[in-house]
Write a structure and sequence with these properties.
With 262 residues, this protein is mainly β. Helices cover 14% and strands 41% of the residues. It has four helices and 18 strands.
Amino acid sequence: MTHGVFHDSYFGLTYTIPLDWIEKYKGPPPSDTGRYVLAELSPGDAFKGPIRGSILIGAQDMFFTPAPAHNAVELIDYMKNHLQSDYKVETPPKQIKIADHSFTLFSYWSPAAELHWYVLATEIRCHVVQIVLTSRDTKLLENLVLDMNKMKLPAEAGSTGGTGGGAAPVCIKDYARYENMTARVDPVLADHKFNSVPVRIVIGKNGKVKHIHFLSAFPDQTKAISEALAQWKFKPYKTNGQPLEVETGIQFGRATAQDASR
């Protein structure tokens, strides 16, 4: 967050926040199911308006989500179908255009708290990026949705797209299968063997692992897995005869046996 602008270089997203809104607190670390809080925004002390609300920018890694969903449309449908009984649907999920990209919009409210939630979701790099707007005033929420048209998003962003490409690697779920590999060394986890360790990797055009991102791990797991991944080698992934970088996810720890059987 810099000078009233939220920018995330990984997702290629830029969002100018409303005047006199601020980020008071940093979000928690990602969960082991790939849930991220990228920013939590609310009116600051300089805000003069009578109406308050909040903006939460989050992302769900679709490689690791426990929900039976493959894109933003399916994830928001799942959310609607599992809404707690205390909440009521205002607007069923529907497709809208924001900043020339497709988003899924879903709104619900709490009669007891008199609060309304607008959830807007699109997919980028196999993550469902969600912007959740909350307020007692629906007019404020509608204006915040209109302000989102000023966002800048990568070309791939879309409710049923967002699988990388262009300047970003192509993201492919479960790509780290034996049939796609020429060399693999499994990590030796001496301690902390039984927790799930979700890892995202970027495979270079030469088939070697060039980037590793741990969503959740102990330091000893980070070291052992990184040393093992440095020895992995994949067959180059090609489209139209041209090698491309690939991004994929792997579960280590308690999921190692399942992964090795693929």
